[in-house]
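Page 37, continued from 36.
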């Protein structure tokens, strides 16, 4: 009898500890150069250019952009923490810890790693984690929103939303933008398919577009109703968004480029932007991807 009681007691202790234990622990790749924090929401974020590590064992990249996007790793973590605070749930987060002078995960392999074998391995792990995260999210929710988080320092202080469309494409007449082929060249084709009665231009810069919602939460953004065609320079989205945002895989995605001034420079500003973006996504994802957060 005592044995049975002890067994029940220790079983209850084990269950209590299991509940207490955070279910979603970070996973690290080779030498902890990539970190993957699994989540449970239909939202996956990657931070490719906020890495700080410059190990001698990885060769310096000799061409392409080598400057980091300052504070974007911290910004991504703040967005994840704020989302957890507001919803009680975590999003998937993939972080490159290598400085961009060692690896640029947002380029195809050749330019990204420039022949360094360790960098090549980290690049594969990085994109592998994004693929795993998106597949898991789609398995749970039927679809996923993917955000590749960056920082820019353009003179016009705004959030740049990159759907893979060039500025010259966005200057096309509305009827061309709303035509059947236009959305196929963009990264939110899935959202267009989920909302067949909504003209594509409305998704890019209408009154309920992501740009409009971000502006309603206190930060200027483009494309948006205020600025349907971004002034240049403008980042339209890169390798990572192009690779992972496929409607056939039930993934919509975009590149979010946060200006340094007002959005990334101080911890207070990063927190304000993180809160605004989370509030925005809590409207955007249920409305356009038709899945609750
Ligand atoms: Zn970047």
């Amino acid at each position: 009898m005592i044995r049975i009681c002890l067994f029940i007691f220790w079983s209850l202790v084990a269950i209590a500890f299991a509940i207490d234990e955070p279910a979603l622990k970070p996973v690290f790749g080779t030498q902890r150069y990539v970190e993957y924090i699994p989540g449970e929401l239909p939202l996956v974020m990657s931070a490719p250019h906020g890495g700080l590590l410059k190990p001698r064992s990885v060769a310096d990249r000799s061409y392409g952009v080598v400057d980091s996007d300052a504070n974007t790793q911290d910004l991504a973590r703040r967005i994840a923490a704020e989302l957890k605070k507001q919803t009680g749930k975590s999003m998937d987060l993939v972080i490159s810890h290598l400085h961009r002078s060692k690896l640029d995960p947002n380029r195809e392999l050749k330019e990204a790693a420039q022949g360094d074998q360790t960098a090549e391995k980290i690049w594969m792990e990085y994109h592998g984690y994004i693929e795993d995260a998106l597949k898991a999210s789609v398995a749970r929710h039927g679809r996923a929103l993917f955000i590749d988080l960056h920082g820019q320092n353009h003179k016009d202080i705004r959030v740049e939303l990159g759907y893979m469309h060039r500025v010259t494409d966005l200057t096309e007449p509305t009827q061309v933008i709303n035509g059947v082929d236009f959305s196929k060249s963009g990264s939110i084709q899935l959202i267009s398919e989920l909302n067949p009665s909504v003209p594509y231009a409305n998704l890019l810069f209408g009154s309920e577009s992501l740009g409009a919602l971000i502006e309603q939460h206190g930060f200027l953004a483009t494309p948006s109703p205020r600025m349907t065609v971004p002034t240049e320079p403008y980042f339209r989205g890169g390798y990572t968004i192009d690779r992972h945002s496929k409607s056939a895989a039930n993934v919509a995605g975009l590149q979010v480029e946060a200006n340094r001034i007002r959005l990334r420079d101080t911890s207070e500003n990063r927190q304000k932007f993180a809160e605004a973006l989370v509030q925005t996504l809590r409207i955007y994802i249920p409305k356009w991807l038709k899945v609750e957060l």
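Residues 55 and 248 are 38 Å apart (CA to CA). Flag for discussion at group meeting. Residues 49, 69, 150 surround zinc ion (CB under 6 Å).
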